[in-house]
Design a protein that fits this description.
mainly beta; 8-stranded antiparallel β-sheet
């Protein structure tokens, strides 16, 4: 079950998830949430990640482990999307890029980013657990 919690006058929302094991055996692994922030287009020193270890460039690919929060910053547009996670997660990041053919040849164009957040899961039969992400949108400070 997924619930989005919105509050008037706030530039944020909370995404809540409830996972339940209706089977007869314990399940373990990861629950996946995929996100493609629409403001994370373009590539340059004024567009970057915060909170994903050494990775800052939006065109970087990789894995960040033990993440409790991160931001995707577009200083050129003066906006940052922040995520606060209720537990340590693994975040996989990939750029979304296309190829374009121009007079000078093939060019790679940065279109955005794809983030996959992996929540650790271990559920005994008949049990459930809740997970949440608080997304906030602010001017870059």
């Amino acid at each position: 079950m997924k619930t989005l919690v919105l509050r008037p006058g706030e530039e944020r929302f909370e995404a809540r998830f409830r996972l339940e094991n209706r089977g007869a055996e314990t399940v373990s692994g990861s629950a996946l949430l995929g996100v493609e922030p629409e403001h994370a287009v373009g590539n340059g020193p004024d567009r970057y990640y915060e909170g994903m270890g050494d990775a800052r460039d939006l065109s970087s690919s990789g894995v960040a482990k033990g993440v409790r929060g991160f931001r995707v910053v577009d200083a050129w547009r003066n906006v940052a999307a922040g995520a606060a996670l209720d537990r340590e997660c693994v975040v996989l990041r990939e750029p979304v890029e296309t190829a374009s053919l121009s007079e000078s040849g093939a060019e790679k164009i940065h279109q955005g980013v794809c983030l996959r957040i992996l929540f650790p899961v271990r559920l005994e039969p008949g049990k459930h657990e809740r997970y949440s992400i608080l997304w906030s949108f602010k001017s870059v400070d």
